[in-house]
Specification:
Its main location: membrane. By secondary structure, this protein is mostly beta strands. It is about 15% helix and about 40% strand. The longest helix is centred in the last third of the chain and has 36 residues, at about 395-430. The protein is elongated and about 135 Å long.
């Protein structure tokens, strides 16, 4: 078993509670090594980086404190001498003594958790008098993991006899790495969020900065369909909420480095990409959170007419976003559900709030007693599909009912005629008999 496989096994055992009790976890400083790409200072300054501008790089976050769950047994720190001799990657050794990296554990365990880490390093251009170079690193863990942006500083002055990097023109350490220090980091735990319409949401944005820096501003902006607008700003203690009800806790902001934004009573207008921009006395860094508002559909199944063939109507109302599927199934007693085709749909309807509604129509074929039709609705806001079912009476029940109904009408008609005839005889018996002409008395 290789070193990496053995370490992942230890991590699995630790997470399963086999190696260490969570109460016994202790902090331990380890090196976090990330495969990155360096966007070189392009020939077209200010333009988009092409594949030719990107070279392989390595980022080593030196001695980052993480909680040891028992999986770090036998874990070794980065050794610069292990780099390839031919075409080695540009290696940045970054000290984190000045900041906190709260997402270091997620970065460290990404491989063992089956997740990928994307890391891109680019130049951070800063107007400053001191002889230094700055870089900004953006790290993202796949599968909804955390995202971290770090501003790193490295001196340009080389010590006597120091070797310079051939393209960066920066001094190299004895084992061939560019030494830097992280002075600002901005992170979010979840770069993509889904919340239900009408609920409240908290958008996480945390930061940590070197003691020499001062926090001067926090800004939240919303970008949606090409339009941008200010949501909330904090500038040296002055607050401005453009979105009604938006809040940011100043105490958490200044003490804990928490710039999270709270939005109550969500509407569809709150959907979009939120940008959390942290401004210090020297640097700026940001995080982008894709925010999605959802509304769960309501499903109702109606039997339109009971004469054969019956028509079923599945009304799906009040859902958002637009993507939604309707599937019909037919199930006879003792059998499995079978998909049914041939359904039609009404035109799409949209409410003033922005949610959608639609109806699906299906002609139900008759079957044995207990035959059930089901309308199943799938939507991104639902953990499980919604279902509505109805039973269609078998044809024989319909026929028997019709014969019984017709027979009853026939018997009622006969009874009515019999009563009419009997009443007629009674009337004849009670009426006076006519007087013969020869018995009539004429009056003079």
């Amino acid at each position: 078993m290789g070193t990496e496989e053995g370490w992942c096994l230890l991590l699995y055992l630790a997470l399963s509670g086999v190696v260490a009790d969570p109460a016994e976890r202790q902090w331990r400083a380890v090196d976090v090594v990330l495969d990155c790409f360096l966007v070189e200072e392009g020939r077209q300054r200010g333009g988009l980086a092409s594949s030719r501008d990107m070279v392989k790089a390595l980022l080593v976050l030196r001695q980052v404190p993480v909680l040891d769950d028992g999986s770090l047994e036998g874990f070794t720190d980065f050794q610069g001498g292990t780099l390839a001799k031919d075409n080695p990657p540009v290696t940045f050794e970054a000290s984190v003594n000045l900041v906190q990296i709260p997402q270091a554990e997620a970065l460290l365990h990404a491989d063992c958790n089956g997740k990928e880490v994307t890391c891109e390093i680019s130049h951070y251009f800063l107007q400053a008098t001191e002889k230094a170079a700055w870089f900004i690193t953006n790290v993202q863990v796949s599968g909804g993991g955390p995202s971290v942006s770090m501003v790193m500083k490295t001196p340009r002055d080389a010590e006597n006899g120091a070797v310079l990097h051939p393209t960066l023109n920066l001094p190299l350490s004895p084992h061939g790495t560019v030494q830097t220090a992280v002075e600002l980091q901005v992170t979010t735990e979840t770069p993509s969020l889904n919340f239900l319409l009408g609920s409240s949401a908290s958008l996480h944005c945390g930061f940590s900065m070197a003691p020499s820096l001062e926090l001067t501003g926090v800004e939240w902006r919303l970008r949606h369909k090409g339009n941008g607008e200010l949501v909330y700003s904090w500038t040296r203690g002055q607050r401005q909420a453009k979105r009604e009800g938006a809040t940011l806790e100043s105490e958490q902001l200044l003490v804990a480095g928490d710039a999270s934004l709270t939005l109550p009573s969500l509407t569809l207008k709150d959907e979009g990409a939120y940008i959390c921009l942290i401004t210090t006395s020297l640097y700026q860094a940001q995080q982008i959170i894709q925010f999605h508002v959802q509304a769960s559909p309501k499903v109702r199944l109606i039997l339109e007419n009971k004469t054969l063939p019956a028509t079923l109507i599945c009304n799906v109302a009040g859902y958002y976003p637009l993507d939604m599927t309707v599937m019909w199934t037919r199930e006879e007693p003792g059998g499995a559900p079978v998909p049914v085709s041939g359904a039609s749909f009404s035109s799409l309807r949209q409410s003033p709030a922005g949610t959608y509604s639609i109806s699906s129509f299906l002609t139900a074929e008759p079957g044995p007693a207990g035959t059930t039709y089901t309308c199943q609705v799938t939507h991104s806001s639902l953990e499980q599909p919604l279902r509505a079912s109805a039973q269609i009476p078998p044809p024989e029940e319909k026929t028997a009912f019709g014969v019984l109904f017709a027979s009853s009408l026939f018997l009622l008609a006969l009874l009515f005629l019999g009563l009419q005839r009997r009443q007629g005889k009674c009337l004849l018996a009670l009426s006076p008999a006519p007087v013969p002409p020869h018995l009539r008395i004429s009056r003079l």
